[in-house]
Amino acid sequence: MSHPLAILSPYIGARSETFIRRHMQDLLPGQTAVLAGDAEPPIAGHWQVDGPHLCLNRVRPALGRQLWESAVRRLGVQPKQQFVEKKVNRFLKTHGVRVILGEYLNWSLPWLVLAKSLDIPLYAHAHGYDVSLILREPKWQAEYVRLNDCAGVITMSEVSKAKLVGLGVHEQKIHVVPYGVDVPDRPIDRQQQETIRCLAVGRMVSKKAPILLLDAFRRAIEQFPNLTLDYIGDGELLPAAQQFVRAFNMENRVTFHRSQPSEVVCEFMQKAHIFVQHSMVDPITGDEEGLPVAILEAMSYGLPVVSTRHAGIPEAVIEDETGYLVEEENSTAMGQRLVTLARDAALRQRMGRAAWNRARERFSWDKEAAHLRHILGLNHGCVDVSTEALFRVDEVETPLAKSVPRSV
């Protein structure tokens, strides 16, 4: 079977990369090949993909290890790198790849020469990590200008588009395609209850600011004690978050559920009344969000959202209509917004229905998939590009990506 779409990604199976999983599995089902850097735990390997895939960390030369290392010492070159590049070349040809979607800009760029040599259009997809943290490196600020040689650049928000234009990427090259989620056919009708359930979903890392979120919740329950918080997520700041909850005697109000599969997250969203997320710029690394999928999922389940004016979030959450936004690091204001929603069931219902409507109109997976297929030239599994020169280029050697971004 032909696989006209290839997706390049640092990982297969990173828990937090639900947007990439969707691209691999559902953008062109049964006709997608995947090229990834790694598919092993602890970062990768938590989910798999059907169809052909090539993991670079599993590529091994035919020579035995000792012979290979001896050749490296004698020749003073890196034959394994050349071997991997030829393997990738062959993989793309074997599966009839006609268009490439590269996940993360810095991961996509090193494959541009190979794609051009095969006459395969390459579209680079930005997320959050690659348009924030990595741009602190002058090397990548300069390298991103080469994105003008790609067939196109896809990003999730107008904020990230503006960053790329500021670096010298041509505006006409950039397509803004928000992430999409499954939206229920009808908004959930939540019954009025005495206890109001808040829900937070996200990795326990600095850009998600779990301690500030917990401080906002602490302030909220001082005014409205009948609040609970379910927190789904794992990460380096989990011990600190647990310590914070113990220090303020909130164990009977806050429950940590660690990392959970998507179906469990959906169950919590159906039972919740308010969704809360305190995203901010990591003060040390500069890492930022792109457009948090958890917020879009919460909107699709008819939850009013309390979050921050950060990255692409204001493009999803409309102030006073689908939720509330506060400034980064302002846990006092966030706590007050939680109290406002907790006290007013009619307000929660109105904002929740507006959030569901906005998710259905702008952030559904069907809309994202249709937009991406249009940009990539995909139409029912066919690619609207010339294939006359596709297989005429011999094996070529290109620079191989040496840095893999961490999971975002």
Molecular structure report:
Strand 5 (122-125), helix 6 and strand 6 form a beta-alpha-beta unit. This protein has 2 domains: 5-180 and 365-383, 3-Layer(aba) Sandwich (Rossmann fold); 196-362, Glycogen Phosphorylase B (Rossmann fold), CATH 3.40.50. Helix 11 (293-300) crosses helix 13. The chain is 36% helix and 15% strand. It contains 14 helices and 15 strands. It has 408 residues and is an alpha/beta fold. The strands form 3 sheets. The chain has a 7-stranded parallel β-sheet with strand order 3-2-1-4-5-6-7, with helices on both faces. It is elongated.
| Strand neighbour order, sheet with most strands | 3-2-1-4-5-6-7
| Tally of separate domains | 2
Beta fraction = 15-25%
State the CATH topology of the largest domain.
Rossmann fold
Q: In DSSP terms, counting alpha (H) and pi (I) runs of 4 or more, how many helices?
A: 14
- Proper CATH architecture of the largest domain: 3-Layer(aba) Sandwich
What is the N-to-C order of secondary-structure elements (H for helix, E for strand)?
EHEEHHEHHEHEHEEHEHEHEHEEHHHEE
The end-to-end distance, rounded to whole angstroms, is 33 Å
Query: What would CATH call the homologous superfamily of the largest domain?
Result: Glycogen Phosphorylase B
Write down the Rg: 23 Å
Low-confidence stretches: 383-408
Assign the CATH class of the largest domain. Alpha Beta
Helix content: 25-40%
